[in-house]
Amino acid sequence: QVQLVESGGGLVQTGGSLRLSCAASGVPFSIGRMGWYRRDQRDLVAEISNGGTTNYADFAQGRFTISRDNAKNTMYLQMNSLKPEDTDVYYCRIGNIYESSYYWGQGTQVTVSS
Q1: What pLDDT is stored for residue 5 in this prediction?
Q2: Where do the DSSP E strands lie in the chain?
Q3: Percent of the chain surpassing pLDDT 70
Q4: pLDDT digits (tens, 9 = 90+) for 82-91
Q5: Alpha carbon distance 56, 69 (integer Å)
Q6: Whether 35 contacts 45, CB under 8 Å
Q7: How many whole angstroms separate alpha carbon 97 and alpha carbon 36?
Q8: What is the C-alpha separation between 71 and 81, in angstroms, rounded?
Q9: Separation of CA 111 from chain center
Q10: How many CB atoms lie within 10 A of CB 22?
């Protein structure tokens, strides 16, 4: 059974930081691209390939850093200089190396107070 366990969300003040984690287990394929999304899974926040190549949304560039530990099947999102408009549920997604199959996490709430 595939499980994506997200953690690290919470309440923080404007300008604060949070570090999200997504730990995958029971995945029946070699994990390719991993990514974080928000806005009901519609908007990409950041993604990282299994080789470490990263891609960021414009709003995340310079503030957020995505990373992964392939040995642990875990992905991270370091979020700095948080703004109230970053408030949302953040979802992790993993895909196979052919990008033909995906799994989603349950989401973790990030709330930034002004």
Answers
A1: 94
A2: 3-7, 10-13, 18-25, 31-38, 43-48, 54-56, 64-69, 74-79, 88-96, 102-104, 108-113
A3: 100
A4: 999 999 999 9
A5: 18
A6: yes
A7: 17
A8: 29
A9: 15
A10: 25
**Average pLDDT for the chain:** 96
How many angstroms separate the CA atoms of 17 and 4, rounded? 22
pLDDT tens column, 20-54: 999 999 988 889 999 999 999 999 999 999 999 99
Measure Cα distances from 112 to 43, 50, 101 in Å: 18, 30, 33
- Tokens standing for 100? 């033909």
Q: What's the CA gap between 68 and 56, in Å, rounded?
A: 15
Check if the beta carbon of residue 50 is closer than 8 Å to that of residue 70. Answer: yes
Tokens of 81: 């200089």
Which pLDDT value is given to residue 9?
97
Phi, psi (degrees; rounded to nearest 5) at 41: 70, 10
Which token pair is 72?
């642990």
Rg (CA), the chain: 13
